[in-house]
Amino acid sequence: MSAPVSTFAALLESANARQRSVFINCPFDRGFSDARAAIVFGVVCSGLLPRTADDLGLVGVPRMTRILRAMSDSLYSIHDLSRCQGEGAFNLARFNMPLELGVAIANGYATTSSENDHQWLALAPEVHPYNQFASDLAGYDLKRHDGKPTIVCTRVMSWLQTLEHAVVAPPLPEVLTALPKFLAAYRQLNLEWRDEPDWIKVWHAAANAVPV
Amino acid sequence: MNRQIFISCEKDGVEFARALKEWLAAREIGAWTPEDFEVGENLAERHRLELNRATHAVIVLTDTPPSSWRRLEWSELLERRSMDPHVQLIPVQLGHRPPPPFLRDTLAADASGGRDEWERAITMVFESLEGRRRIQREYTSGLSERLEQDLQTAAEQPREEGALRVELAAAERALDRGRTTGDGQRLAGLLGRVGMLRLHLEDAEDAIEPLELARRLLVESPAVSPQERVSTAYCLGDALSRVGRVNEAAALLLSATGESARSDVDEFTTAALAFRAGQAVEGTGDSESAQRLFDYAQGLAEPLLGPDHPTVAAYRKAARQQT
User: Fold this and answer.
1) How does residue A199 score in pLDDT terms, banded at 50, 70 and 90?
2) pTM here?
């Protein structure tokens, strides 16, 4: 194990960074780890840059500020509502994801030029009553998935391939064949970094697994 | 052949869609456009029904940026095509806006010159529907160039130790604040993070104490997931190996490999632990046990990653070196 070779910031200094950035807003627990990796891999296979609130390692900055910064630096975002269900002793749901989805939706309306409109994708589990607890979302067609990495990756890539700043991805079967290689690398990083791997290492592992 | 044609367009493509639909209707070919909703219909259900039964989708591209709704429609069509390669997507270019990535390798019926070109474009669509026109075209994705450039940008940066040091300082502050907490699991998390960051900063000696404390707390917390315990053991075993305490490292990593194999931890993680345990055991001079562990790691990883994967190759090489 060694220190990261660079920070993710270097990539974000390149031209068109905002147009290439996809903010990923999804559960960070272990149960969602493979699905999260599938989202990251889909983003990288489309030639885009996966972003999270922690990708720049701004440890002294409040979390919400980090999220807002990363999201406003990203033209696109992907949100997963899988964990908005009661859990724990008090049967409480986590509402960070809908909160951040709300920010993304507002971002989409805040820009005056349609070229710079923030575009977002929301994912939800197959049986998920989001239209009951967040009924304002009922007018939107959320993409459903069963949590399996191949399904999540398919859902994400089919949306990413409609985005202007993405590039033509390898055929989906090739991406899905390569996905286990990235999952293995991602698990190794999680093991070495106790589930908080440096983002540049995650991006490196994904870029090296892309079937080109 | 039972053709179901779906026409996808923004508002400024509706007129063309109408013309296409009429032209096809004159040849007894039905098509559905978003104008065909009927009063009282559930819009989302009808839309989904038409998308799901489409055998051909004509996608009218204009100068208007596609709406979020349109992107979702396209992505549904793309998913349908990935499941059924017979589903055909036929782009019609009415404007000059570049097509979305999924259509860049498909020859479009070009009517970007204006209304005079509509008839020719409609004929091209018809020929595609009849299977008389080749619609695939050569297109360079640009992905490998983009990734190569990105990798180069990332590689050109100097080793960034500062960012890790800042993270470590923050983790140490959080640990100071959290020491008095009665929550053993949370304290273990804070300790583990400090230890892990010290380890990544090549300070294995100082990483051991917090990692050992974290491990002890995690063993005492029944609610902790096995993954968290083995992850901490992995870091601690690594730190112990680095400072030459190989017997302790070997014992710890062997026990963690066993726990991982018995629990619902994924097989790749178990393989990684077994490999690290093998390295530690090898350091004690027991090459027979080390080989067994390397073989075990390879046996778990190979079905997941294939024989040519670098990780599998590393496991295989380590096993061979013992013989």
Assistant:
1) confident
2) 0.86
